[in-house]
Structures are given as structure tokens and as C-alpha cells.
Amino acid sequence: MSFLKRPNDFLFRVLTVVASTSLAVLCLLVIYSVVMRYVFSDAPDFVEPIALLLVIVIAMFGAALKVREGGHIGLDSLVKKLSPKGQVIAAGIQHLCLMTFAVMVFIGCLDMAKTTMEDRIPILGLPEGLRYCIPVVASVCIAMFSFEHLLALFVKKQK
Question: Environment class of residue 110 by beta-carbon count within 10 Å: exposed (0-12), middle (13-18) or buried (19+)?
Fold first, then answer.
């Protein structure tokens, strides 16, 4: 199982650094924007499109990180009442659903990225498809993390 755990550990650390850095930059950017707008009456126009990209990074990579940690939303009160075998089955279904979700996000966002890559984000001049590339990366991570959890269920079951 280490064939998947090591790359996922590395990916987890990279996502953590990127999401944390994005959050810090977003905070600084918002403070800068507020000071410029209300103190100097000179609102920068580039803050909003950058902030939107950062929010997408934080939300999507944060979701992937929570999947790896096993901290996503669940119906624990129902699952805890199940037998141990039922709990394993519920966890397996949960990870299969997460992997299906990740595949759907991947397909949809990849299609949108291809469709909008020629368009430009106003003010920044970056490709509009960049907004959709972020969820593509996050969906791959979600699928890999869910697959790792699913394999762990089978390894525990066999022992």
C-alpha cells in the first residue's frame, strides 16, 4: 500500500502549502484593497479577479485535504449504529461516491477549461480556462485520496 501512500503524502504536503499560501495571500490582498479603497480612495481593479482564483484554490484544495484526513461531512450517527461490517461497507460506498464525484468534476471542468482557454480573464489577461484547471487538479487528488482510503479498508478487512 506504500506505492500509493508515499505519493499521496507528498501531494498532501504540496496541497497544504499551496492552500495555506493562497489563504495568506488572499488575506493580504483583501487588506490591501480595503486600505487602498477607504484610505486612499484608489480601489485597485486587479484584486477581485485574483481573489476569485485564490478562493477557488483554497476551496478545492481544502476539500481534497479534508478527504485525505477523513474529515468530510458524513452521517456518523447512522453509521455508528451499524455493525462493524456495515460500517466498512458504508465507508466503502462513501469512498466510491467520492471517487465518482471526483471523476465527474474532472470531466466537466476539463471540458470547460478546453472550451474557455482562448478567452481571457479581464484585467489579468490570463486564460479563463485557468479557473477550471484548479478543480481538475483537485479532483485528481480527491480520487487518489479516496482510492487510498478504499484500499486501506480492504487491507484491514484481510488482516
Answer: middle
